[in-house]
Write a structure and sequence with these properties.
alpha/beta; Ribosomal Protein L15, Chain: K, domain 2; three-stranded parallel sheet; elongated
Length: 158
Amino acid sequence: MKYNELQTNSTQSRKRVGRGISAGGGKTAGRGTKGQNSRTGKKLHATFQGGQNPIIASSPKMKGFKSHRVPAQVVYADHLNTLKGTVDNLALFEAGLIATPYHQVKVIARGECTAKISLKTQGASKSVVEALKKAGGSFERVVTPLQKSAKTAEATDK
């Protein structure tokens, strides 16, 4: 018989310990004899070191603060010159200026904004708002649009 000709079963059932001497895993049930690990109710976390100060608690912590807030997507004012009418997150996404229409967008001044548009985003710098008004447009702060879930879309289609 060769190694590659062996008939094996990959779904071997687990050994039921603590079911008597004749079962083969009785009495101590594979836990050894005395000690903390042999007792029932032993729930020690991975960093437990027998009651001494764990190395995790004694190691220095990272300094500073890390924000979990997703930063706003940035659109520059000179990119708005190619757009017309009402410009919102969806229009900016279709123009390829932002990655997703469902995150916060802020318009920042760079170059000249000469387009007469109605900008409806989550933020814009003061200089952009002034440039829009000077060009005959307007700015309105709106909430970030929510992505429609697939479940509600399926329910409305039926």
